[in-house]
Amino acid sequence: MKIKVQAEPFDLGGEVAAFSAGAAGAGAVVSFTGLVRDEGGRLAAMEIEHYPGMTEKAIGGIVEEAVARWALVDALVIHRFGRLGPGEAIMMVATAAGHRGEAFEAAEFLMDYLKSRAPFWKKELGAEGSEWVAAKDADEAALKRW
Is-contact 120 49, C-beta < 8 A? Predict the structure, then answer.
């Protein structure tokens, strides 16, 4: 289990290759990468803030839950903070399990948690000013299935 909260960009291919190589005994590896979305071409950047220590602890708890719940061989969460531009990778989740169903479900569980409950605060910056990103009903509803 590995959690990285970092400002620096990450190498998606390198992270997936290293994760897969270390997932001995797994029959499936699933990875997902979230990108900074620029809906309508109005976003100049997104600023992401967090509290070091608290963020890693919160993510670690939910990763431990996923590992136990789906009997994962391994799990990886990378989440960036700081100023990110449209199209940049903001986060990555990878799960390794004996079978694909468990790997997919665990990855979705982690993604839903990161989207709605992980202690990150996001501000969108554009030509018309800045605005904090509010919680979305659809994201909250996604958590209810777990």
Answer: yes
- How far is Cα 63 from Cα 106, in angstroms, rounded to an integer? 9
What distance in Å separates the CA atoms of residue 130 and residue 111, rounded to the nearest whole number?
25
Give the number of other CB atoms < 10 A from CB of residue 122: 17
Contact between residue 76 and residue 15 where contact means Cβ atoms under 8 Å apart: yes
For the whole prediction, is pTM greater than 0.85?
A: yes
Parse the chain into domains and list their residue ranges: 2-144
pLDDT in tens, the chain (146 residues): 999 999 999 999 999 999 999 999 999 999 999 999 987 889 999 999 999 999 999 999 999 999 999 999 999 999 999 999 999 999 999 999 999 999 999 999 999 999 988 999 999 999 889 999 887 888 778 778 88
Cα gap 87→89, rounded to integer Å: 7
What is the CATH architecture of 2-144? Alpha-Beta Complex (3.90)
